[in-house]
Request: fold
Amino acid sequence: MNDTMKNHPASVWALAQRAARMNPSIIREILKVTEQPGVLSLAGGLPSPETFPIEAMREATAKVLADTPKEALQYAASEGFGPLREWVAGALARQGQQVTAGQVLITTGSQQGLDLVGKVLVDAGAPVAVETPTYLGALQAFAPYEPIFKSLASDSSGPLAEAIEQLPHDAPGTRFAYVLPNFQNPTGRVIPEARRQAIVAAAQAARVPLVEDNPYGDLWFDEAPPAPLAARWPEGVIYLGSFSKVLAPGLRLGYVVAPPELYPKLLQAKQAADLHTPGFNQRVVHQVIKDGFLDQHVPTIRARYKAQRDAMAQALARHLPQGSEYAAPQGGMFFWVRLPEGCHAMALLEQAVAAGVAYVPGEAFFAHAPDVRTMRLSFVTLSPQDIETAVSALGRVLKRHLNEELEEATP
Reply:
Protein backbone atom coordinates (compact mmCIF):
# COMPACT_ATOMS: atom_id res chain seq x y z
CA MET A 1 0.00 0.00 0.00
CA ASN A 2 1.48 3.35 -0.99
CA ASP A 3 1.60 6.41 1.26
CA THR A 4 -1.34 8.07 -0.50
CA MET A 5 -3.63 5.16 0.22
CA LYS A 6 -2.45 5.04 3.82
CA ASN A 7 -3.15 8.74 4.34
CA HIS A 8 -6.45 8.73 2.44
CA PRO A 9 -8.20 5.39 2.95
CA ALA A 10 -11.28 4.64 0.89
CA SER A 11 -14.42 5.86 2.62
CA VAL A 12 -16.93 3.35 3.92
CA TRP A 13 -19.74 5.88 3.43
CA ALA A 14 -21.96 5.76 0.36
CA LEU A 15 -23.96 8.94 -0.12
CA ALA A 16 -27.57 8.85 -1.26
CA GLN A 17 -28.15 10.21 -4.75
CA ARG A 18 -30.13 13.11 -3.28
CA ALA A 19 -27.05 14.24 -1.35
CA ALA A 20 -25.43 15.25 -4.63
CA ARG A 21 -28.22 17.81 -5.05
CA MET A 22 -27.43 19.48 -1.73
CA ASN A 23 -25.17 22.49 -2.12
CA PRO A 24 -24.00 25.14 0.32
CA SER A 25 -25.85 28.42 0.30
CA ILE A 26 -23.80 31.07 -1.48
CA ILE A 27 -25.25 33.56 1.00
CA ARG A 28 -23.87 31.63 3.98
CA GLU A 29 -20.50 31.39 2.27
CA ILE A 30 -20.49 35.14 1.61
CA LEU A 31 -21.43 35.83 5.22
CA LYS A 32 -18.21 34.13 6.26
CA VAL A 33 -16.34 36.65 4.12
CA THR A 34 -18.18 39.54 5.74
CA GLU A 35 -16.74 38.57 9.11
CA GLN A 36 -13.45 40.00 7.93
CA PRO A 37 -12.60 43.27 9.69
CA GLY A 38 -13.60 46.35 7.76
CA VAL A 39 -16.17 44.73 5.44
CA LEU A 40 -19.62 46.34 5.38
CA SER A 41 -22.18 43.70 4.44
CA LEU A 42 -25.10 44.33 2.14
CA ALA A 43 -25.31 40.56 1.68
CA GLY A 44 -27.15 38.78 4.44
CA GLY A 45 -30.93 38.65 4.62
CA LEU A 46 -30.74 39.16 8.36
CA PRO A 47 -33.24 41.25 10.32
CA SER A 48 -31.74 44.14 12.23
CA PRO A 49 -30.81 42.99 15.74
CA GLU A 50 -31.82 46.47 16.89
CA THR A 51 -35.43 45.37 16.35
CA PHE A 52 -35.26 42.33 18.65
CA PRO A 53 -37.67 42.77 21.61
CA ILE A 54 -35.12 41.69 24.21
CA GLU A 55 -36.89 42.97 27.30
CA ALA A 56 -40.23 41.50 26.26
CA MET A 57 -38.53 38.16 25.66
CA ARG A 58 -36.82 38.32 29.03
CA GLU A 59 -40.09 38.97 30.83
CA ALA A 60 -41.96 36.29 28.88
CA THR A 61 -39.25 33.72 29.55
CA ALA A 62 -39.44 34.41 33.28
CA LYS A 63 -43.21 34.10 33.29
CA VAL A 64 -43.25 30.82 31.34
CA LEU A 65 -40.67 29.32 33.68
CA ALA A 66 -42.62 30.56 36.69
CA ASP A 67 -46.09 29.46 35.55
CA THR A 68 -45.59 26.32 33.43
CA PRO A 69 -41.95 25.22 33.78
CA LYS A 70 -42.49 21.48 33.51
CA GLU A 71 -44.84 21.75 30.55
CA ALA A 72 -42.52 24.15 28.75
CA LEU A 73 -39.50 21.88 29.17
CA GLN A 74 -41.29 18.62 28.26
CA TYR A 75 -41.90 17.05 24.87
CA ALA A 76 -44.84 18.72 23.15
CA ALA A 77 -47.49 18.11 20.51
CA SER A 78 -46.23 17.78 16.95
CA GLU A 79 -48.90 20.20 15.69
CA GLY A 80 -47.60 22.95 17.96
CA PHE A 81 -48.69 24.81 21.09
CA GLY A 82 -52.48 25.09 20.93
CA PRO A 83 -52.82 28.75 21.99
CA LEU A 84 -50.15 29.80 19.49
CA ARG A 85 -51.95 27.96 16.69
CA GLU A 86 -55.16 29.72 17.70
CA TRP A 87 -53.34 33.07 17.60
CA VAL A 88 -52.01 32.39 14.09
CA ALA A 89 -55.45 31.37 12.83
CA GLY A 90 -56.98 34.53 14.29
CA ALA A 91 -54.31 36.78 12.79
CA LEU A 92 -54.77 35.25 9.34
CA ALA A 93 -58.55 35.46 9.59
CA ARG A 94 -58.16 39.22 9.99
CA GLN A 95 -56.37 39.22 6.62
CA GLY A 96 -59.36 37.53 5.02
CA GLN A 97 -58.17 33.92 5.15
CA GLN A 98 -60.58 31.14 6.06
CA VAL A 99 -58.37 29.35 8.58
CA THR A 100 -58.90 27.21 11.66
CA ALA A 101 -56.27 26.32 14.24
CA GLY A 102 -56.56 22.74 13.01
CA GLN A 103 -54.91 23.80 9.75
CA VAL A 104 -51.91 25.45 11.44
CA LEU A 105 -48.70 23.47 11.85
CA ILE A 106 -45.94 25.19 13.84
CA THR A 107 -42.57 24.56 12.20
CA THR A 108 -38.93 25.08 13.07
CA GLY A 109 -38.75 28.21 10.96
CA SER A 110 -40.63 28.59 7.70
CA GLN A 111 -37.61 26.96 6.04
CA GLN A 112 -38.73 23.68 7.58
CA GLY A 113 -42.14 24.30 6.09
CA LEU A 114 -40.57 24.37 2.63
CA ASP A 115 -38.79 21.10 3.34
CA LEU A 116 -41.99 19.43 4.53
CA VAL A 117 -43.83 20.61 1.42
CA GLY A 118 -41.11 19.14 -0.76
CA LYS A 119 -41.09 15.90 1.16
CA VAL A 120 -44.84 15.43 0.90
CA LEU A 121 -45.52 16.69 -2.63
CA VAL A 122 -42.42 16.19 -4.80
CA ASP A 123 -41.33 12.99 -6.52
CA ALA A 124 -38.14 12.60 -8.49
CA GLY A 125 -38.69 14.04 -11.94
CA ALA A 126 -41.86 15.91 -11.00
CA PRO A 127 -42.11 19.50 -12.24
CA VAL A 128 -42.14 22.34 -9.69
CA ALA A 129 -42.75 25.86 -10.96
CA VAL A 130 -40.86 28.82 -9.48
CA GLU A 131 -40.65 32.54 -10.13
CA THR A 132 -37.82 34.14 -12.09
CA PRO A 133 -35.84 34.82 -9.94
CA THR A 134 -36.90 33.07 -6.73
CA TYR A 135 -35.84 32.51 -3.14
CA LEU A 136 -32.58 30.56 -3.02
CA GLY A 137 -33.59 28.76 0.18
CA ALA A 138 -36.65 27.29 -1.54
CA LEU A 139 -34.52 25.91 -4.37
CA GLN A 140 -32.27 24.35 -1.74
CA ALA A 141 -35.22 22.91 0.19
CA PHE A 142 -36.88 21.34 -2.83
CA ALA A 143 -33.77 20.17 -4.70
CA PRO A 144 -33.04 17.01 -2.65
CA TYR A 145 -36.45 15.63 -3.67
CA GLU A 146 -35.23 15.78 -7.28
CA PRO A 147 -37.85 17.93 -9.00
CA ILE A 148 -37.52 19.39 -12.45
CA PHE A 149 -37.70 23.13 -11.87
CA LYS A 150 -39.83 25.09 -14.33
CA SER A 151 -39.03 28.81 -14.36
CA LEU A 152 -42.13 30.97 -14.76
CA ALA A 153 -41.78 34.04 -16.95
CA SER A 154 -41.94 37.02 -14.58
CA ASP A 155 -41.83 40.80 -14.65
CA SER A 156 -41.71 43.57 -12.06
CA SER A 157 -45.18 42.55 -10.85
CA GLY A 158 -44.33 38.88 -10.33
CA PRO A 159 -44.99 35.72 -12.33
CA LEU A 160 -47.11 36.07 -15.44
CA ALA A 161 -50.54 34.47 -15.20
CA GLU A 162 -50.23 33.17 -18.75
CA ALA A 163 -47.08 31.28 -17.76
CA ILE A 164 -49.10 29.45 -15.11
CA GLU A 165 -51.90 28.82 -17.60
CA GLN A 166 -49.37 27.09 -19.88
CA LEU A 167 -48.03 24.72 -17.23
CA PRO A 168 -50.24 21.76 -18.26
CA HIS A 169 -48.66 22.04 -21.73
CA ASP A 170 -45.14 23.15 -20.80
CA ALA A 171 -44.69 21.03 -17.66
CA PRO A 172 -47.45 18.40 -17.36
CA GLY A 173 -47.96 17.15 -13.84
CA THR A 174 -46.58 20.27 -12.13
CA ARG A 175 -46.95 19.61 -8.40
CA PHE A 176 -47.23 23.26 -7.40
CA ALA A 177 -46.10 26.78 -8.22
CA TYR A 178 -44.03 28.45 -5.50
CA VAL A 179 -44.61 32.20 -5.17
CA LEU A 180 -43.63 35.03 -2.80
CA PRO A 181 -46.23 37.75 -3.33
CA ASN A 182 -45.00 40.28 -0.76
CA PHE A 183 -41.64 42.09 -1.06
CA GLN A 184 -40.05 39.06 -2.61
CA ASN A 185 -36.62 37.78 -1.74
CA PRO A 186 -34.56 38.68 -3.77
CA THR A 187 -36.29 41.33 -5.91
CA GLY A 188 -38.38 43.17 -3.32
CA ARG A 189 -41.34 43.19 -5.73
CA VAL A 190 -44.93 42.90 -4.58
CA ILE A 191 -47.63 41.25 -6.68
CA PRO A 192 -50.44 43.81 -7.20
CA GLU A 193 -54.14 43.05 -6.74
CA ALA A 194 -55.00 42.50 -10.40
CA ARG A 195 -52.06 40.12 -10.93
CA ARG A 196 -53.01 38.15 -7.80
CA GLN A 197 -56.50 37.65 -9.15
CA ALA A 198 -55.10 36.56 -12.52
CA ILE A 199 -52.57 34.16 -10.94
CA VAL A 200 -55.22 32.43 -8.86
CA ALA A 201 -57.61 32.18 -11.80
CA ALA A 202 -54.84 30.74 -13.98
CA ALA A 203 -53.79 28.24 -11.30
CA GLN A 204 -57.37 27.11 -10.81
CA ALA A 205 -57.85 26.67 -14.55
CA ALA A 206 -54.57 24.77 -14.88
CA ARG A 207 -55.26 22.75 -11.69
CA VAL A 208 -51.84 23.72 -10.35
CA PRO A 209 -51.77 24.28 -6.56
CA LEU A 210 -49.87 27.22 -5.12
CA VAL A 211 -47.35 27.41 -2.28
CA GLU A 212 -47.45 30.97 -0.94
CA ASP A 213 -44.45 32.05 1.14
CA ASN A 214 -44.96 35.23 3.15
CA PRO A 215 -42.10 36.06 5.54
CA TYR A 216 -42.05 39.79 4.71
CA GLY A 217 -45.72 40.72 4.41
CA ASP A 218 -45.85 42.71 7.65
CA LEU A 219 -42.84 44.84 6.68
CA TRP A 220 -44.68 47.29 4.42
CA PHE A 221 -43.69 50.95 4.47
CA ASP A 222 -46.57 53.03 3.13
CA GLU A 223 -49.38 50.64 2.24
CA ALA A 224 -50.25 47.10 3.30
CA PRO A 225 -50.09 44.56 0.46
CA PRO A 226 -53.27 43.05 -1.03
CA ALA A 227 -54.97 40.02 0.49
CA PRO A 228 -53.04 36.73 0.30
CA LEU A 229 -53.51 34.22 -2.49
CA ALA A 230 -54.67 31.77 0.16
CA ALA A 231 -57.66 34.00 0.93
CA ARG A 232 -58.79 33.58 -2.69
CA TRP A 233 -58.35 29.81 -3.05
CA PRO A 234 -58.15 28.17 0.42
CA GLU A 235 -58.34 24.61 -0.84
CA GLY A 236 -55.61 25.15 -3.44
CA VAL A 237 -52.94 27.09 -1.52
CA ILE A 238 -50.42 26.13 1.16
CA TYR A 239 -49.46 29.26 3.10
CA LEU A 240 -46.17 29.72 4.98
CA GLY A 241 -45.46 32.38 7.58
CA SER A 242 -42.71 33.23 10.03
CA PHE A 243 -41.98 35.01 13.30
CA SER A 244 -38.33 35.54 12.30
CA LYS A 245 -38.76 38.96 10.68
CA VAL A 246 -41.11 40.48 13.29
CA LEU A 247 -39.57 39.02 16.48
CA ALA A 248 -36.25 37.22 16.20
CA PRO A 249 -34.89 34.55 13.82
CA GLY A 250 -32.99 32.75 16.56
CA LEU A 251 -36.30 31.44 17.92
CA ARG A 252 -36.76 29.40 14.71
CA LEU A 253 -40.54 29.67 14.68
CA GLY A 254 -42.64 29.52 11.55
CA TYR A 255 -45.88 27.93 10.48
CA VAL A 256 -47.63 26.19 7.62
CA VAL A 257 -51.34 26.58 6.94
CA ALA A 258 -52.52 23.66 4.85
CA PRO A 259 -55.82 22.57 3.32
CA PRO A 260 -57.39 19.87 5.54
CA GLU A 261 -56.69 17.09 3.03
CA LEU A 262 -52.93 17.79 3.12
CA TYR A 263 -52.48 18.56 6.81
CA PRO A 264 -52.17 14.94 8.07
CA LYS A 265 -49.30 14.13 5.71
CA LEU A 266 -47.44 17.34 6.54
CA LEU A 267 -47.89 16.50 10.22
CA GLN A 268 -46.49 13.01 9.70
CA ALA A 269 -43.51 14.45 7.86
CA LYS A 270 -42.98 16.89 10.75
CA GLN A 271 -43.13 14.07 13.30
CA ALA A 272 -40.51 12.13 11.37
CA ALA A 273 -38.25 15.17 11.05
CA ASP A 274 -38.02 16.44 14.64
CA LEU A 275 -41.09 15.32 16.64
CA HIS A 276 -42.05 18.94 17.33
CA THR A 277 -40.85 22.52 17.26
CA PRO A 278 -39.36 23.52 20.65
CA GLY A 279 -42.30 23.93 23.00
CA PHE A 280 -40.45 26.36 25.24
CA ASN A 281 -39.90 28.77 22.35
CA GLN A 282 -43.54 28.52 21.33
CA ARG A 283 -44.78 29.33 24.82
CA VAL A 284 -42.44 32.29 25.16
CA VAL A 285 -43.51 33.74 21.81
CA HIS A 286 -47.17 33.27 22.63
CA GLN A 287 -46.65 35.02 25.95
CA VAL A 288 -45.05 37.96 24.13
CA ILE A 289 -47.63 38.38 21.38
CA LYS A 290 -50.93 37.26 22.91
CA ASP A 291 -52.04 40.70 24.13
CA GLY A 292 -51.30 42.72 21.00
CA PHE A 293 -47.56 43.34 21.34
CA LEU A 294 -46.97 43.11 17.60
CA ASP A 295 -49.45 45.91 16.94
CA GLN A 296 -47.02 48.28 18.65
CA HIS A 297 -43.75 46.55 17.80
CA VAL A 298 -44.02 45.98 14.05
CA PRO A 299 -44.63 49.66 13.19
CA THR A 300 -41.29 50.49 14.83
CA ILE A 301 -39.59 47.98 12.53
CA ARG A 302 -41.32 49.48 9.50
CA ALA A 303 -40.22 52.99 10.40
CA ARG A 304 -36.62 51.89 10.90
CA TYR A 305 -36.45 49.91 7.67
CA LYS A 306 -38.13 52.66 5.67
CA ALA A 307 -35.44 55.14 6.74
CA GLN A 308 -32.76 52.66 5.75
CA ARG A 309 -34.52 52.00 2.43
CA ASP A 310 -34.52 55.71 1.73
CA ALA A 311 -30.84 55.97 2.61
CA MET A 312 -29.97 53.20 0.19
CA ALA A 313 -32.11 54.63 -2.59
CA GLN A 314 -30.31 57.95 -2.26
CA ALA A 315 -26.91 56.29 -2.13
CA LEU A 316 -27.61 54.15 -5.20
CA ALA A 317 -28.72 57.22 -7.13
CA ARG A 318 -25.49 58.99 -6.20
CA HIS A 319 -22.97 56.22 -6.71
CA LEU A 320 -24.06 53.48 -9.12
CA PRO A 321 -22.78 53.80 -12.69
CA GLN A 322 -25.07 54.99 -15.45
CA GLY A 323 -27.15 52.19 -16.89
CA SER A 324 -27.81 50.47 -13.57
CA GLU A 325 -31.43 49.43 -13.06
CA TYR A 326 -33.30 49.16 -9.76
CA ALA A 327 -36.56 50.14 -8.08
CA ALA A 328 -37.01 51.17 -4.46
CA PRO A 329 -38.98 48.41 -2.71
CA GLN A 330 -42.21 49.30 -0.93
CA GLY A 331 -41.41 46.93 1.93
CA GLY A 332 -39.19 44.08 2.98
CA MET A 333 -35.41 44.14 3.19
CA PHE A 334 -33.87 44.13 -0.29
CA PHE A 335 -32.94 46.12 -3.37
CA TRP A 336 -32.50 44.18 -6.61
CA VAL A 337 -29.99 45.80 -8.94
CA ARG A 338 -29.19 45.02 -12.56
CA LEU A 339 -25.78 46.34 -13.51
CA PRO A 340 -24.77 47.83 -16.86
CA GLU A 341 -23.66 45.61 -19.68
CA GLY A 342 -20.12 44.36 -19.12
CA CYS A 343 -20.58 43.76 -15.38
CA HIS A 344 -20.58 40.22 -13.95
CA ALA A 345 -21.69 40.46 -10.31
CA MET A 346 -20.09 37.19 -9.21
CA ALA A 347 -16.79 38.01 -10.88
CA LEU A 348 -16.69 41.44 -9.26
CA LEU A 349 -17.45 40.24 -5.73
CA GLU A 350 -13.83 39.67 -4.78
CA GLN A 351 -12.92 43.22 -5.79
CA ALA A 352 -15.87 44.58 -3.83
CA VAL A 353 -14.87 42.70 -0.68
CA ALA A 354 -11.33 44.01 -1.06
CA ALA A 355 -12.85 47.51 -1.19
CA GLY A 356 -14.79 46.83 2.00
CA VAL A 357 -18.30 45.91 0.83
CA ALA A 358 -20.12 42.61 0.23
CA TYR A 359 -23.32 41.75 -1.64
CA VAL A 360 -25.05 38.64 -3.00
CA PRO A 361 -24.62 37.99 -6.74
CA GLY A 362 -28.05 37.50 -8.24
CA GLU A 363 -27.35 34.40 -10.30
CA ALA A 364 -27.88 32.12 -7.29
CA PHE A 365 -31.60 33.01 -7.28
CA PHE A 366 -32.36 31.62 -10.73
CA ALA A 367 -33.44 28.03 -11.34
CA HIS A 368 -32.33 28.40 -14.97
CA ALA A 369 -30.54 30.93 -17.21
CA PRO A 370 -29.16 33.19 -14.47
CA ASP A 371 -28.79 36.89 -15.11
CA VAL A 372 -25.14 37.46 -14.18
CA ARG A 373 -25.60 41.26 -14.11
CA THR A 374 -27.88 41.15 -11.06
CA MET A 375 -27.17 41.54 -7.35
CA ARG A 376 -29.18 41.62 -4.14
CA LEU A 377 -28.47 44.35 -1.59
CA SER A 378 -29.87 44.20 1.95
CA PHE A 379 -30.41 47.56 3.67
CA VAL A 380 -31.65 46.68 7.16
CA THR A 381 -28.53 45.82 9.16
CA LEU A 382 -26.45 48.94 8.44
CA SER A 383 -26.95 52.50 9.61
CA PRO A 384 -27.72 55.14 6.96
CA GLN A 385 -24.15 56.36 7.31
CA ASP A 386 -22.72 52.88 6.74
CA ILE A 387 -25.08 52.34 3.81
CA GLU A 388 -23.66 55.47 2.21
CA THR A 389 -20.10 54.25 2.80
CA ALA A 390 -20.83 50.76 1.47
CA VAL A 391 -22.67 51.88 -1.66
CA SER A 392 -20.00 54.50 -2.37
CA ALA A 393 -17.33 51.78 -2.24
CA LEU A 394 -19.43 49.52 -4.47
CA GLY A 395 -19.92 52.32 -6.97
CA ARG A 396 -16.17 52.93 -7.18
CA VAL A 397 -15.53 49.25 -7.89
CA LEU A 398 -18.15 49.13 -10.62
CA LYS A 399 -17.06 52.37 -12.30
CA ARG A 400 -13.41 51.33 -12.23
CA HIS A 401 -14.33 48.01 -13.85
CA LEU A 402 -16.39 49.68 -16.55
CA ASN A 403 -13.60 52.17 -17.29
CA GLU A 404 -11.15 49.29 -17.64
CA GLU A 405 -13.58 47.54 -20.00
CA LEU A 406 -13.87 50.70 -22.06
CA GLU A 407 -10.12 51.13 -22.25
CA GLU A 408 -9.65 47.55 -23.43
CA ALA A 409 -12.31 48.00 -26.08
CA THR A 410 -10.80 51.26 -27.35
CA PRO A 411 -8.39 50.65 -30.27
User: Anything to note?
Assistant: The first helix runs from residue 3 to 7. The first strand starts at residue 40 and ends at 41. Residues 54-291 form a domain with the Aspartate Aminotransferase; domain 2 fold (CATH 3.40.640.10). The mean pLDDT is 94.
